[in-house]
Write a structure and sequence with these properties.
With about 290 residues, the chain is α/β, with parallel strands linked by helices. The chain is about 40% helix and about 15% strand. It has helices at about 5-20, 25-30, 70-75, 80-85, 100-105, 125-130, 145-155, 165-170, 180-205, 230, 245-260, 280-290; strands at about 35-40, 40-45, 55, 65, 95, 120-125, 155-160, 210-215, 225, 240, 265-270. The protein has a five-stranded mixed beta sheet with strand order 3-2-1-4-5. The protein has a four-stranded parallel beta sheet with strand order 7-6-8-11, with helices on both faces. It has a two-stranded antiparallel sheet with strand order 9-10.
Length: about 290
C-alpha cells in the first residue's frame, strides 16, 4: 500500500494539476497573488506572478485557504469539486476577494465533475422572443419552439443576441425611417461590438462556437439573404429579397474581421410566417451545421 500523502504533498499535487491544464496561462494571466494554504497546522505559500503557480517563501498573502486534510484529499482526487467546497458545502474557508475565489475555482476546475460541453451558439433574438417581430410576423406564440428544441437536443448553450431594431428603433419600430443611415449603423455597430466581445471571451477560453445564427431575410439579422435593406436604411424603395447580409450581421462581421477573429461560422435560418411550411427543411440545415 502506498504511503498516505502529507498535507504539503497534497497541496503540491494541487499545484501540479493546475499547472498542467492547457488553459492555465489564460487563467493566471495578469493575476499576481500570494496564496496561503492552512491545513491542520501546516502552511504552504504559492505565488502566481510567473504565469503559473510556484512555491513561495512565507510572506503576506492576499488569499488564504483553510481546510482539513480530508477535504484536501477529496479535492485532489476530484471527489469534491473546489467550487462546491467553497460555495456549497463550506468545507473550505476562504479569505480573499470574490474575484480571487472565482479565479481559483476555474484554475482547479475538475474535468471529471464539469458536465458542460463548452459549446455555445449565438442566436438571433426573435427566434427566442417572437414579440419583437412585426404583428402577424410569425407562426409561433412566443418562440420558434422546434428550432429551440433542436438546439437543446444538440446540448449547446444558447446565447440570445440583442435585437438591434428594438434597441435602436423601439419595440414597434417607431423610429424606422426617422433616422439617417449613419445613425442606424452606429447604433447597430455598438450592439454588434458587444456580441463580438462575448464571442472573443468564449473563443479565448477554448469554447467551441459551432454557429452564429441569423434570421433570413431580415434587413437587420439576415445572413445569406436580406429583404428591403435599402428601404430600411432610407436609401431606396426596393423591398425585394437580395443575396446580401442585413445591417446588424454586416456590422458584426466587420467588427470580427477588424479584431482578427477570422471567418466565423455565421449562417441564417429562414423565419416561418403564419401559414408557411418548410420547418423540417430549416431544421435539417440547423442539424447539418451543428
Amino acid at each position: 500500500m502506498a504511503p498516505e500523502l502529507s498535507s504539503t504533498e497534497l497541496i503540491d499535487q494541487m499545484m501540479t494539476n493546475a499547472n498542467k491544464r492547457q488553459d492555465a496561462l489564460l487563467r493566471l494571466r495578469n493575476w499576481n497573488r500570494v496564496i496561503r494554504w492552512v491545513v491542520e497546522g501546516d502552511q504552504v505559500f504559492w505565488k502566481t506572478d510567473t504565469g503559473m503557480i510556484t512555491m513561495n517563501p512565507p510572506q503576506e498573502a492576499q488569499v488564504t485557504i483553510t481546510c482539513s486534510k480530508e477535504t484536501l484529499k477529496r479535492i485532489v482526487s476530484q471527489e469534491l469539486p473546489f467550487f462546491l467546497a467553497l460555495w456549497a458545502t463550506g468545507d473550505l474557508e476562504f479569505k480573499g476577494s470574490f474575484s480571487d475565489a472565482h479565479r481559483l475555482g476555474y484554475i482547479f476546475l475538475s474535468d471529471k465533475n464539469d458536465k458542460r460541453k463548452r459549446r455555445v451558439v449565438f442566436l438571433a433574438h426573435c427566434f427566442l422572443n417572437i414579440n419583437t417581430r412585426f404583428p402577424e410576423g410569425s407562426a409561433f406564440a412566443g418562440a420558434n419552439t422546434p428550432l429551440i428544441q433542436t438546439l437543446l437536443q444538440k446540448e449547446v448553450g444558447i446565447i440570445q443576441m440583442p435585437c438591434p431594431e428594438f434597441l435602436c428603433l423601439g419595440l414597434e419600430k417607431e423610429l424606422a425611417g426617422e433616422l439617417p443611415e449613419s445613425e442606424i449603423r452606429a447604433c447597430f455597430r455598438k450592439h454588434a461590438e458587444s456580441v463580438v466581445d462575448q464571442i472573443q471571451q468564449y473563443l479565448n477560453l477554448g469554447y467551441e462556437i459551432p454557429g452564429i445564427i441569423g434570421m433570413n431575410p431580415s434587413p437587420s439579422c439576415g445572413v445569406e439573404i436580406s429583404k428591403g435593406k435599402g428601404k430600411f436604411l432610407g436609401l431606396d424603395e426596393d423591398t425585394s429579397e437580395k443575396e446580401e447580409s442585413g445591417v446588424f450581421i454586416e456590422e458584426l462581421q466587420n467588427t470580427a474581421q477588424q479584431r482578427g477573429l477570422g471567418k466565423l461560422p455565421i449562417f441564417g435560418i429562414r423565419r416561418i410566417l403564419t401559414g408557411e411550411s418548410g420547418m423540417e427543411e430549416r431544421l435539417k440545415i440547423l442539424d447539418e451545421r451543428l
